[in-house]
Each structure stands twice: as C-alpha cells, then as structure tokens.
Specification:
Elements: H1 3-13, E1 17-20, H2 38-50, E2 56-58, H3 62-65, H4 68-85, E3 90-97, H5 101-114, E4 119-122, H6 128-135, E5 141-147, H7 153-156, E6 160-161, E7 164-165, H8 166-174, E8 183-187, H9 195-201, E9 207-209, H10 219-226, E10 233-237, H11 239-242, H12 250-269
Bound molecules: the ligand O=c1ccn([C@@H]2O[C@H](COP(=O)(O)O)[C@@H](O)[C@H]2O)c(=O)[nH]1.
Length: about 270
C-alpha cells in the first residue's frame, strides 16, 4: 500500500487507529481453545468486528513465535485473511528486525514478499546498511524505532551523543539514507512532550504510536504535538481493545473499545 492510499483511508474512515493483535492464549475466551486454530479464530472475530473502526492492524510477531510453528501458521493465516478480505487495511509486522545487510534482505523478503505485510518494524542500532535493504522494497514501509514507549527508552535513546540526543541523531541520519521516503518511525504515546521536537526533524513522516490504553499514553496530547496536515499518525492500542472482555462477547466488547478511540479521532479530524 502506498502512503497516499493510507492517507485516503484515514480521511474516508475518519480514524487513524491501529489495532494490535497480540494474542495470548491465557487471555482469550476459553471456548475458543476448542477451535482448530484458536489464535486465528480470535483474530478473525476481532478483525470482522473492528475493521470499519481502524486503518491498520499490527500483530506483534513475538505473540506468534512463542507458539512455534503453530503460532507462525496462525500469523500467516491472519495476514492472508486481512489481505484477501480487507485489502484497504494497512498491515504492520511488529518484529523489530535488523542485522547485517544480507541478513536484513532475508528478513525483508520474509515479511514483505512471503507474508506480504505492508510494513515491518526495525531497530536502528546496526545502522544504515542494516536498514537500507528493507527500504529497497517499493510501496513497502520500514518503521524504525525512534523513541520507544517504555521506561528503558531513557537508558540510551535520550542520552546525548555528539551534542544531540541519540533519538534525534537516529531521525536526522536516517533521512539521508537511500529510499528514506519509505521510512516511518515508532514514537511512544507515553513520550508526548517530545513530539514537537520530533516534528521539527521529520515534519511529514508517519509515526506509529504505541502506548495509548494499557500503557497510559494520552491520545489528545499526541495529536496536539504530533499531527501533520496528512495526519501522519497511526495510534496503536493492543490489550486495551482486544481484551476488553474475556467472555463470549469479546469481539463486540473490542469493537466498543475501538469505537471510543475512533470517535475521539473523528472529533479531532473534524
Ligand atoms: O515503543 C514501543 C514499541 C512497540 N510497542 C509494542 O506495541 C504494542 C503495545 O501494546 P499495548 O497492549 O497497547 O500496550 C505491543 O505489541 C508492544 O510490543 C510498544 O508498546 N512500545
């Protein structure tokens, strides 16, 4: 999907919500455990109930890898279902990959070609040659960690290196890379006070913003300082939506929870 198509979807659906599909078998309704593929059954029900309220889904691959081959098959089925039934939805593999160049190319093939995700998250720590192989894929998006939502973000990301905070160095340097137009960035909703400075460096790039809901980030604050003319934000909530209920009504409860955020977004967009 192109960035233009993503912006069109945001404007049409009046939402920039991304729903995180972080499936934990201990948290899903127990009746689903009787299904042949409980993870896919859960995701399918959540997607069917919420697709009109969001523009993106983000399975975090850890929640699938934890269940071995079965988990990976559930991830495959989920992305295939999304691509076939809801092709207008932007898909994010939250895998936080990155390695020496030839290995990064294989990661990129896995997520962009084999699984056919629109985007994948990567870590910037190994630098230019670890990220550029992802950027080489046309109409695919590489979402690089910039300033993360967790407390550990202050261990390295905000430390001063050569007179500038490391996360700012990451943003500035990455702008010079080949195919940098295919970059988006992760900035945590819990770091709302940093968005104004971040926008000075990357005024137009899309930001994937996790941390609303279960981690306590505030949507209004993020939008106040992070929003661009083209919105430029994908706000993610995972647990706050998909585990709104652990009973048989889980899909409807997830939709209600998603609708609360979507209505807030709609009001901001109007
Ligand atoms: O800085 C980051 C980067 C990634 N994440 C991921 O986003 C979701 C958040 O889940 P919630 O349940 O809404 O808290 C999860 O997959 C994280 O691994 C993040 O939280 N912060």
């Amino acid at each position: 999907m192109t960035t233009k198509q993503l912006i069109e979807q945001i404007q049409k659906k009046k939402t920039f919500l991304c729903i995180g599909l972080d499936v934990d078998l201990n948290k899903i309704p127990q009746h689903l455990l009787k299904e042949e593929d409980p993870i896919f059954a859960f995701n399918k029900a959540i997607i069917d109930a919420t697709h009109h309220l969001c523009v993106a889904y983000k399975p975090n691959t850890a929640f699938y890898e934890a269940y071995g081959i079965k988990g990976w098959k559930s991830l495959e089925k989920t992305i295939k279902y999304l691509n076939e039934k809801y092709p207008e939805i932007f898909t994010i593999a939250d895998a936080k990959r990155g390695d020496i160049g030839n290995t990064s190319t294989m990661y990129a093939k896995a997520f962009f070609e084999d699984l056919a995700f629109d985007s994948v998250t990567v870590a910037p720590y190994m630098g230019k040659d670890s990220v550029e192989p992802f950027l080489a894929f046309k109409d695919k998006h590489t979402i690089m960690l910039a300033l993360t939502s967790n407390a550990g973000a202050f261990d390295f990301q905000t430390k001063t290196v050569d007179g500038k905070e490391l996360y700012k160095q990451v943003l500035e340097t990455s702008k010079t890379w080949t195919n940098a137009e295919n970059l988006m960035y992760v900035v945590g909703a819990t770091k709302a006070e940093y968005f104004a400075d971040i926008r000075k460096i990357i005024p137009n790039s899309f930001l994937l913003v996790p941390g609303v809901g279960a981690q306590g980030g505030n949507l209004q604050d993020v939008c106040k300082y992070g929003m661009t003319d083209n919105v430029g934000l994908l706000i993610n909530s995972s647990r706050g939506i998909i585990y709104a209920s652990q009973n048989e009504d889980f899909a409807e409860a997830a939709a209600k929870s998603a609708e609360i955020l979507q209505q807030e977004m709609k009001a901001i967009l109007e």
